[in-house]
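Late entry, copper (II) ion complex.
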Amino acid sequence: MWIALLARPSPRPLSHIRLISTARAVFKNSDTVAHNVRWPAISGDKSLAHNLGTWASGDNRKFRFDRPGVVPLLCNMHAEMVGYIIVVPTPYYAYATPAGDYTVRDIPDGHYSVTVWREGKPAETRQVTVAGNTDLNF
Ligand SMILES: [Cu+2]
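Prediction complete; structure with ligand written out below:
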């Protein structure tokens, strides 16, 4: 079983990066101007590049991600825009605070691989045995 964590190095808006455990993502444009959403690769695999197109305020697009990975989101219309979706193979995941604290609740006792992801750094994985309240420090 897997546990996924997202570490935030600064108090950037959380919407910048999202963890999802379901395969289907909805991209909603809540801005007042049109945006494009595309990704040049998933976890470095350029054959999985995709362009969802450009759409106006209030509209949305859906996409089904078939496997876990890191999806860097870009916009053809605004070069400064970047975001990430981390598709994780588990219902157990959490966002760390800027101070590095995190809590993943309601995990059944057992052995797990815990992966932490930080923007711009390689992912780090540790093994942990969960038995009741369990601490794991990276
Ligand atoms: Cu944009």
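The domain at 2-130 is CATH 2.60.40.420 (Immunoglobulin-like). Will revisit in the morning.
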